[in-house]
Amino acid sequence: MAADKLSTARQRAEEALKSIGVSYSVEEGANFVEFIVDVARLKDAALALKNAGFGTVVSVTATDYPKKNTIKVVYHVTSMIDDEVKGAIIGVGVYLPRIDKPSMPSLTGVWLSAEFMEREVFEFFGVEFEGHPDLKPLLLIPPLAEKRPLRKDFVVREENIYEGVPFSNVG
Amino acid sequence: MSGDIRFYGAFKDELGLKTIPSRRIAKDTYEIFIGPQHPGSGHMRIIIKVDGDVIVEAEPDIGYVHRTMEKLGEIRGWIKPIPLFERMAIHDACNITLPYVRAVEKLMGVEAPERAKYLRVLLCEINRIAAHLYGFAIFGIFLGHSTMYMWAMGDREVWIELAQELTGARLTHSYPVPGGVRRDIHDEYPDMVRRAIRYMRKRLEDYRKLFLDNPVIKSRLEGVGVISKKQVVELGIVGPNARGSGVAYDVRLADPYEVYDQLDFEIPVFEEGDALARTYVRVEEIKQSMNILEQVVDWLEKHKGEPIIHESVSSKYGPVHKKVLQEQRRAKLLPLHATMKVPAGRAIGRGETARGEVIYYVESDGGLNPYRVRIVTPSARNAIAFKYALPGHKVMDLPAIYGSLDYFPPESDR
After folding, report:
1. Contacts of residue B235 in chain A, CB cutoff 8 Å?
2. Does A108 touch chain B (CB under 8 A)?
3. Is the pLDDT of residue A93 over 70?
4. pLDDT at site B21
5. Where are the domains of chain B?
6. Boundaries of domain holding A20
7. Which pLDDT score is estimated for B391?
8. CA end-to-end span of chain A, whole Å?
9. B98 CB-near residues (< 8 Å, 6+ apart)
10. Three-class SS of residue B54?
11. Is residue A31 within 8 angstroms of chain B, CB to CB?
């Protein structure tokens, strides 16, 4: 049943993207499908998908690929009310250059549910969303957000439990 | 502070909502910081601007209990994140980790045996009831109704004891593992569940008399914090909060997992969208969860002795582990699981926790660690409701709205 919904959703999304003439490439996951578009046409693509019934963002997923020198930002969307595609997850996303402050248009104007999630991507990856109403860190304090913690070059240092304690005080 | 007030009115009109009064907002608004130490607000802060007694702008300031779940998920192998992710919502532990386990299973290409699926559903529903009772307790104390706090917290103990009997731990069970579950039930367990259900049904009647039908409680909740159906879809609000506004969205129905498609249950939906409706949804969900539990224990009684873990795990067992599995019905994870590799691929795991839909996006590059784990918890999605549902209400209504949203900061901050 879930697979039927996904194929319906995929068909509907492809039709919507074709109707506005956006070129896309498809990347498939185990139980979802992603449409990668050009940054310049992202907003058009998002609007077309929203009009096709995908009204809610479930996740703005960013992934860092230092080897490919790119950051991928995908909006995973679903429909909460349309029974034909309810629960099927499709994604629309872009590849951004892996620079200090990559920039892309904000989709908060299209999907209000992306507002807080875009702030998360901003603080963890340093992606700047143009046109976001209130772009500032959501979970982190600003100095920590500067370090872009979810990029792969931020390495978590394993701490010794006695770190900072003089040796003579131990035990 | 004059001049820098942003009006959300235009945004809301576009959505067909009128929560902000159309009159002009006074220039001398006050800013009030609620939290993060306030006993009512938990580990979060809400910054509100008030015109007299009316909230004109609200800004949830979250992140006080952020514990870097997504980053730590990338460096600890595939099994250790299970007890880690549980810490997001410890009283809802099975619900919150199951989607991750399922995503890993999907990448590995294994599927849990039927009995393990029923056992997972069993613990999920026990967790759901316990989490709702916890929510009720907090809600009660928010409204100054300390009896409800005592009762709900006390009755939650019944379900925690059941979870303990099943898994050995009161809260952080780490029960589902890729391939199955860690323990089976013993022979007296189904009767214990039935007894708990009988008790809880009686207690819900008491709750109704004392709390739900209480005119004081009703007057504080009715028509307060209304979130319209359109707003729910637009803001992406999930769980009982969505179902209290007429959106019949539940992952157990929209994308059934485990054995939910074989069980007979209903998804309670209320149309009003106010705090009272959200409360009613939770009460009805407790009843539905108890119906599910009855069916599950019936099934488990009829299918004793079936495997609880996938044979890709149990076939590697040595004699001692085999003996433990056969005699004590406990499935152990082997040391080789600590260094297991998962085939490259990407999967999304999703499930319905007590508070709503949780999403795990798991990406593997075929290595020892997940390449990326993206977690979106229900509270993280509901946090936006504070920004758009509070304006237009009086400050007095804030605890009622907060409590009715059942917002849980550790889950939201991840």
Report:
1. 112-113
2. no
3. yes
4. 47
5. 69-413
6. 2-151
7. 82
8. 60
9. B120, B124, B176, B257, B258, B349, B351
10. strand
11. yes
Residues ≥6 apart with Cβ < 8 Å to A24:
A17, A35, A36, A37, A45
Give the domain CATH number at A43.
3.30.460.80
Query: For residue A168, what pLDDT is reported?
Result: 66
CB proximity under 8 Å: B 75-114 to A: 75, 103, 106-107
d(CA B2, CA B13): 23
Give pLDDT tens digits for B53-81: 888 888 888 888 888 888 888 888 898 88
How many independent structural domains does chain A possess? 1
Are B71 and A149 within 8 A, CB to CB?
yes
A156 in any annotated domain: no
Residue ranges of chain B whose pLDDT lies below 50: 1-14, 16-22
Of B259, B234, B231, the closest CA to residue B245 belongs to: B231
Alpha carbon of residue B385 to chain centroid:
16
**Does B376 contact chain A (CB < 8 Å)?**
yes
Which of A58, A116, A156 faces B71 most closely, judged by CB atoms? A156
Q: Give the CATH fold of the B69-413 domain.
A: Cytochrome-c3 Hydrogenase; chain B (1.10.645)
- Is the pLDDT at A157 greater than 50? The verdict is yes
Q: Is residue A11 part of a domain?
A: yes
Q: pLDDT tens across A100-139, in order?
A: 889 999 888 888 888 899 999 999 998 999 888 888 888 8
Residue A163 included in any domain:
no
DSSP A65: E
CA distance to partner chain B, nearest, from residue A26 (Å): 14
| pTM, rounded to two decimals | 0.88
A45 within a domain of the structure (yes/no): yes
Residues from chain B that touch A31, judged by Cβ atoms under 8 A, are 106, 347-348
